[in-house]
Amino acid sequence: MSLVKTIGELEDWRKRSGRKEQTLGFVPTMGYLHEGHLSLIRRAKAENGLAAVSIFVNPTQFGPGEDFEKYPRDTERDYRLAKEAGADVVFCPEADEIYAPGFSTEVEVKGGLTQKLCGASRPIHFKGVATVVNILFNIVRPDRAYFGQKDAQQAVVIQKMVRDLHIPVEIVVCPIVREKDGLAMSSRNMYLSPEERKQALSLSRGLAKARGLLASGEEGCDRAERLAEVIGREIRKEPLAKPEYIEILDGGTLEEIERVEPGRKALAAVAVRFGGTRLIDNTVLSLEEK
């Protein structure tokens, strides 16, 4: 496996790798890899001849006061884990390799997709995400790109960008990977104190209760307001939990819904702070058509 830090080095790898004869799967990450990332790399390798991983903590998607400076970084560890998972190349650029001197071009997906959920409290976040992902697609030129369902809003935004800009890449969204106790894997989990981590399990418990209510078939179990209440009640049992949002939305458009309609996927999404750590989680809700 190759570790490259410049676009030129990546081009050299491409020429040596037999890229023209094989499809390329791509996993963009901010590093400090965990099993969620590794599952994406393994799938990228399984579905393509070659698998590429980028490790880049993108400064443009962090707002003032967020955790850009303290975001965990360990390139040597990430390189080893990516190699074990099957990556053929790891692209680990410096910021000035991605954003050349005088950089002044941004990509923004406008409208409701980026103004709700995480976009409501992080107004520049998705502009930064769309811009850097577009740049990475142009540099890496993959056939498929793999994203995790945990960042469900991000995945929908990237899918919209790819459709609107006719970018020739297939977006593959893969299931959330969880710890044995149910906590969704995240690089930010390391910030949690033992007690915060214990209370953070309320997110997955609340989402599970919503799935259970919907599956019960009892009257009114499909109402979005009621499902959100069930999730919120479970999370608010924990004294350290400070919910930022608890929403039930259309799974494809992220538009508000009144009910979970048979045959249409809904998304139950939450963001909750525990001390200085902001966690997100979600689950897909669905009813079979009768």
Description:
It is a single chain. It is globular and about 60 Å long. It has a 6-stranded parallel beta sheet, with helices on both faces. The mean pLDDT is 95. 39% of the residues lie in helices and 19% in strands. The N and C termini lie far apart (50 Å). It has 10 helices and 9 strands. The chain folds into 2 domains: 2-174, HUPs (Rossmann fold); 187-281, 2-Layer Sandwich (Pantoate--beta-alanine Ligase, Chain: A,domain 2). The chain has 290 residues and is an alpha/beta fold. The longest helix is centred in the C-terminal third of the chain and has 23 residues, at 194-216. A hairpin with a 2-residue loop joins strand 8 and strand 9 (277-285). It has helices at residues 7-17, 35-47, 75-85, 95-98, 112-115, 118-121, 125-140, 152-165, 194-216, 224-235; strands at residues 2-4, 24-29, 50-55, 89-91, 144-148, 170-174, 241-250, 266-274, 277-285.
Overall average pLDDT: 95
Give the oligomeric state: single chain
Structural class: alpha/beta
Radius of gyration: 19 Å
**How does the major sheet shape up?**
6 strands, parallel
What is the overall silhouette?
A: globular
Task: Give the count of helical stretches.
Answer: 10
| Name of the top-level CATH class of the largest domain | Alpha Beta
List keywords for this structure.
290 residues, alpha/beta, Rossmann fold, Pantoate--beta-alanine Ligase, Chain: A,domain 2, 2 domains, six-stranded parallel sheet, three-stranded antiparallel sheet, 9 strands, globular
